[in-house]
Amino acid sequence: MEHKQFNYQQPFLLESGVILPRVQVVYSYFGTLSPTQDNVIWVCHALTANSNVEDWWKGLVGHGKLFDPTHHFIICANILGSHYGTTGPLSVDPVSDERYYHNFPFVTIRDMVKVLDLLRRELGILKIHTCIGGSLGGQQALEWAIMEPDLIENLVLIATNAQHSAWGIAFNESQRMAIEVDPTWQERRPDAGHAGMKAARSMALLSYRNYDTYLKTQTNYNVEQQDHFPASSYQRYQGDKLVKRFNAFSYWILSKAMDSHNVGRGRGSVIKALAKVKAKTLVLGIKTDLLFPIEEQKLLASYIADAHYDEIESLYGHDGFLIECPQIASLYKSFLTANIKIDR
């Protein structure tokens, strides 16, 4: 996999009206772009992931996998506001010559997608065979299909929605409240708010999983034990794991961006916006998903003209989009086969 950097040296206007003086984008790709550009697989990543899609979606991407660099040109770009090289809160503001930290402006999913499209144009990619994403990645993929209706041939939306729900926003706000009470949060340093982010990640995990997940994987079977339970240590482990690779500023910014997601903004309504999608669309819901319940995916499939809906069985709730790769691969292959038959 190749790792590259694209520097957009012109002012970039955010949806809020704020201007970023310039934008840097870190992206990864592997495989070879075909002469007809009919093999582009563009992966949109979720909240704390990065452009190294082979690392976090290894069940779908790699040699011998569903998206194979032998046949496909696979690309994933780190999103605006994130931690892994694309312009974000730890970047240096060229105006002040200091890191942004708390001064990094509010961004939306639409802003992220505009940056992705700048990169796409820079690379000369005129057509995307498949654009795929789960969760916040699915929000980006959907927004892109609406903004550029003729760009994407096949759209795969997993465990995502057209408008972020009050339930999802409440989870995100609770996590931000945990960061706020960290006494270091107001300091201008890369590790500010880390203790709060540990607690935030623990909260988030409860929405990513469900009762049965914890019952199956974290139950204590020692009837004499009174403290230090597996579920307790697991929550702390997940918080510790995240602070080793992420920062609270990006966590804050990206959770706010997720809250902003509403494809109907400026387009009359969600239904009118979904009607703009021309891509053949596979919508996948996860039956046990508490954060993005299947009603949200069914709505997408109901109002996107050429959409097929299917469901994934998973013990792991929302995190099933990262874990249940064999099911996703099987459903995607069936979707493509059905479309080929229809086209003929």
TrEMBL record:
<comment type="function">
    <text>Transfers an acetyl group from acetyl-CoA to L-homoserine, forming acetyl-L-homoserine.</text>
</comment>
<dbReference type="Pfam" id="PF00561">
    <property type="entry name" value="Abhydrolase_1"/>
</dbReference>
<feature type="active site" description="Nucleophile">
    <location>
        <position position="135"/>
    </location>
</feature>
<comment type="pathway">
    <text>Amino-acid biosynthesis; L-methionine biosynthesis via de novo pathway; O-acetyl-L-homoserine from L-homoserine: step 1/1.</text>
</comment>
<dbReference type="GO" id="GO:0004414">
    <property type="term" value="F:homoserine O-acetyltransferase activity"/>
</dbReference>
<feature type="active site">
    <location>
        <position position="318"/>
    </location>
</feature>
<keyword id="KW-0963">Cytoplasm</keyword>
<feature type="domain" description="AB hydrolase-1">
    <location>
        <begin position="40"/>
        <end position="322"/>
    </location>
</feature>
<keyword id="KW-0012">Acyltransferase</keyword>
<dbReference type="InterPro" id="IPR029058">
    <property type="entry name" value="AB_hydrolase_fold"/>
</dbReference>
<feature type="binding site">
    <location>
        <position position="319"/>
    </location>
    <ligand>
        <name>substrate</name>
    </ligand>
</feature>
<dbReference type="InterPro" id="IPR000073">
    <property type="entry name" value="AB_hydrolase_1"/>
</dbReference>
<keyword id="KW-0486">Methionine biosynthesis</keyword>
<keyword id="KW-0028">Amino-acid biosynthesis</keyword>
<comment type="similarity">
    <text>Belongs to the AB hydrolase superfamily. MetX family.</text>
</comment>
<comment type="subunit">
    <text>Homodimer.</text>
</comment>
<protein>
    <recommendedName>
        <fullName>Homoserine O-acetyltransferase</fullName>
        <ecNumber>2.3.1.31</ecNumber>
    </recommendedName>
</protein>
<feature type="active site">
    <location>
        <position position="289"/>
    </location>
</feature>
<dbReference type="InterPro" id="IPR008220">
    <property type="entry name" value="HAT_MetX-like"/>
</dbReference>
<feature type="binding site">
    <location>
        <position position="201"/>
    </location>
    <ligand>
        <name>substrate</name>
    </ligand>
</feature>
<keyword id="KW-0808">Transferase</keyword>
